[in-house]
Design goal:
It contains 11 helices and 35 strands. With about 800 residues, the protein is mainly beta. It starts with about 30 loop residues before the first helix and ends with a helix.
């Protein structure tokens, strides 16, 4: 059923107009049999988008009080066991307890679906749900001591099985399309309600240094002010041995405080001319795993030290003065410095006059004056529609989610393709990990190999986008809720931004004979969030296009992580930025996990992956002109075979195909993964960080879907001593891929040799990839995009008179 812009929810009435108590006739036997059919008792009733000449479809407002008895008609898709699937019925509602259904078989009176589910199974946990989950876990602690020592790393939605999502989308929430469900011999089995939502909680016990995972079942949880009486139910809990969960911002702040109060550290800073501890910045970094001393039996951090120049300048770039030669190791469980050594006295770099980046701090406060205002105006509003976390934009629809670790998650991506209806593309899209290894072998830089998702959390480090010009135009924001270290709920307002962008020309052709031209402007829908991890900023973007294309993009900006040098010293492992200051070479790697569902209805697993290489035809009788080349496909039959790398020389790409669906040429429908610029790690094969990041050894991994396989380096990469945990281990099962539920893991990276132009703040660098329809449509899906009105809105400041486009006249055309 097509969803309307407004929804009408039917609530139970005390008396049915067809009951004898209401003075009406009794319910016919036929109606009673239908009423007893296996139908949903929780339903959000919406009108159909189409209007009939005789029975007009419109939004229905239900009056209150005594006026609730009424009659109206509208077409809906109604499902129960006694009728064929996907039959359109016309309903007359008599009261809030029953309706008449007009079909070719006659009139029946049945009860309507009475109550809507409050939250979709994929909606992120609300603040109230997080509070209930935390309270439930805390209450389950064996003793007050245990409860007091609980620290909450993350509280996230335990995503349900895919069939639960399918039922929700079919009968309870937009897109309201039961026809997406596979047909069964006995007809659809319609549940009375969806399973309760569940939360998954990672808890760190500060006293015992243990990490545990809890699953809590949530009842109907409302606003915090109304939900104090709600209590969840613990489904399971287990201690995970020999792991360390991600660090928390509260730990970082406490670590900074204890280091700055440590007497030997204060003395070391005095040797460098710093006595004001307010100028000192302590950035704790996870230690990674380089030897047994980094084992997860202790929760460790190795801070990097920086020093600002002016205490009264909140926007000063403190990263411009790194402090070298001081070794500090902090026990984060007990918050004590356990190792300290002033190894080498390296003078602080002199204050760089170009270190700051705000207009009041650089260039004498003078900004360029030739930038005219550029306004994004949508007088009729945006083209997208939003219902909770469900988004419809032109022919695309999907759901938005958010987790503390991944940040933005895109669910249930589908394209509405005319008479073919809603065609799924992917079940889940997200960035699940990123690793930043540095190329300087000197201390402390060799330890810089941050897992910014697994050790910190991209979502938890996201920030509100309302404070700047991160997004322009008509914007829809989504808030994000997560737990802090002590179990309180924090909200990032305007965390996810969604807006439309003009993207240049979509397509154009001019007939050279007639001079007639057709051109269309391209528009894309962009969903994004931005996080700050210490000195770096990362923007994560998903772009949806009118031609069926999806682009994933990461934008890198922020401040370089620098090192200090002795006077006259030079290092080949980086770029000199200023006297005594250099930026080490490094790489940024990102992992996109794409749970694909190309043309697969829920419950179907009919996808496969082929690798495509462009081959040059050898000389011979079929290639006498030596110009021939062709595309050669290789089916990736198993997981071990599907560890692949990019090959620019052969324009390598990969296509996810549906093995049961064909286009008009008889070829299998598919979506192509088209790589952008990419690289592999430049470290040696025995590099210590590759123990935890072995997934970086290939650009593409393909696995058979497994619900528990979410993160390529395993769930707990922090201080992980186990080699190859995650993807490298999973693929050893060598599961078949010829026709199954496919998950793509695309690893893409950028090598950063810093430039002077990257200082003091880096202009955005971009990296990403594209998902392109490949035989998915029978022709270009963009041909129906209407002409733009841009010629009516544009202005030519140099024009003296109105310019009228004339047909091109040439001697050739004249002869024609």
């Amino acid at each position: 059923m097509a969803s309307a812009s407004k929804k009408t929810t039917l609530f139970s009435s005390d008396v049915c107009c067809h009951s004898t108590a209401a003075g009406s006739t009794t319910v016919p036997r036929e109606a009673a049999s239908v009423a007893s059919a296996n139908v949903v008792q929780d339903w959000n009733l919406t009108t159909n988008d189409r209007a009939d000449d005789r029975r007009t479809s419109k939004n229905v407002a239900i009056p209150s009080g005594e006026d609730r008895v009424m009659c109206f008609r509208f077409p809906v898709i109604f499902y129960f066991d006694l009728e064929p699937l996907a039959t359109t019925y016309y309903l007359t509602m008599h009261c809030l307890k029953c309706v008449s259904i007009f079909t070719s078989h006659g009139t029946r009176v049945v009860p309507p679906m009475l109550r809507a589910q409050s939250r979709h199974p994929l909606d992120p946990l609300s603040a109230a749900e997080i509070s209930v989950a935390v309270a439930t876990v805390r209450a389950a602690g064996a003793t007050p001591e245990v409860r007091d020592s609980m620290r909450f790393i993350e509280v996230v939605l335990l995503e349900p099985e895919k069939h639960v999502v399918a039922l929700a989308d079919a009968y309870f929430f937009p897109p309201f399309q039961p026809s997406l469900l596979p047909k069964t011999k006995g007809g659809p089995v319609i549940p009375t309600k969806l399973p309760p939502r569940r939360a998954r909680i990672v808890v760190y016990n500060k006293k015992s240094n243990e990490t545990s995972i809890w699953v809590v079942e949530l009842s109907e949880v409302h606003a915090v002010t109304r939900g104090g009486h709600h209590r969840g139910k613990v489904i399971s809990s287990s201690v995970v041995p020999e792991v360390q969960p991600p660090m928390d911002a509260a730990e970082y702040a406490e670590c900074e405080a204890i280091v700055k109060e440590y007497p030997p550290f204060i003395e070391a800073m005095k040797k460098r001319g710093i006595e004001d501890m307010d100028l000192v910045m302590v950035d704790p970094w996870c230690v990674g795993y380089h030897s047994e001393v980094d084992a997860p039996g202790r929760r460790l951090a190795k801070p990097l030290i920086f020093c600002r120049t002016e205490s009264d300048c909140p926007m000063e770039n403190g990263y411009a003065r790194p402090v070298e030669g001081i070794h500090v190791l902090v026990d984060m469980q007990n918050m004590v410095v356990i190792e300290f050594e002033d190894r080498k006295l390296v003078p602080l770099p002199p204050a760089d006059p170009l270190r700051n980046y705000t207009s009041g701090e650089t260039r004498g406060g003078v900004d360029r004056s030739d930038v005219k205002p550029l306004q994004i105006v949508q007088p009729e509003g945006p083209s997208f529609r939003v219902n909770g976390y469900y988004v419809e934009w032109q022919k695309w629809n999907f759901r938005i989610g958010f987790t503390p670790r991944e940040g933005l998650v895109i669910y249930s991506v589908a394209y509405v393709d005319g008479s073919r209806g809603r065609r799924p593309v992917a079940h889940r899209l997200s960035f699940v990990e990123m690793v930043v290894p540095y190329g300087d072998p000197n201390d402390p830089h060799y330890r810089k190999n941050a897992f910014d998702a697994g050790e910190d959390g991209l979502g938890k480090n996201a920030h509100s986008l309302k404070k700047g010009c991160d997004c322009l135009g008509y914007i829809k924001y989504f808030d994000a809720h997560f737990t802090n270290f002590t179990g309180g709920v924090e909200t990032i307002e305007n965390c996810v931004c969604m807006h439309e962008e003009d993207h240049g020309i979509l397509w154009k052709h001019q007939d050279w004979r007639t001079g007639l031209a057709e051109v269309r402007r391209s528009r894309r829908l962009t969903v994004s969030f931005i996080c700050t991890v210490a000195n770096y900023e990362y923007g994560f973007f998903w772009h949806f296009f009118q031609d069926g294309k999806i682009e994933a993009e990461v934008k890198l900006t922020g401040i370089l992580s620098l090192g200090a040098l002795q006077p006259g010293e030079y290092r080949k492992y980086g770029t000199m930025i200023a006297p005594g200051l250099y930026a080490p070479v490094h790489q940024h790697f990102f992992v996109a996990r794409m749970d694909m569902a190309v043309d697969c209805k829920p419950g179907e697993a009919f996808n496969q992956v082929v690798e495509v290489d462009l081959k040059v035809e050898g000389p011979g009788e079929n290639n006498v002109h030596n110009n021939a080349f062709y595309a050669e496909e290789t089916l990736l039959k198993s997981e071990m075979q599907a560890m692949r790398d990019c090959s620019p020389l052969s324009a390598r790409h990969w296509i996810v195909r549906n093995t049961r669906t064909v286009n008009r040429t008889g070829q299998l429908t598919g979506y192509k993964l088209l790589p952008g610029s990419n690289c592999l790690p430049l470290a040696g094969s025995e590099a210590k960080f590759l123990r935890r990041a072995s997934f970086l050894k290939h650009n593409l991994w393909v696995t058979q879907y497994s619900r528990d396989e979410m993160f390529p380096g395993g769930e707990f990469p922090n201080q992980n001593p186990r080699v190859g945990e995650g993807l490298s281990t999973w693929v050893k099962q060598d599961r078949p891929l010829e026709e199954t539920d496919i998950v793509l893991w695309y690893v893409f990276g950028i090598t950063h040799v810093p430039r002077l132009e990257d200082w003091p703040v880096m202009p955005v660098d971009r990296i990403g990839f594209t998902l392109l329809p490949h035989g998915f449509f029978n022709c270009s899906p963009a041909v129906d995009v209407p002409p733009s009105t841009c010629e009516l809105d544009s202005k030519d400041t140099d024009a003296k008179e109105t310019v009228v486009t004339k047909p091109i006249q040439t001697p050739i055309i004249a002869k024609l």
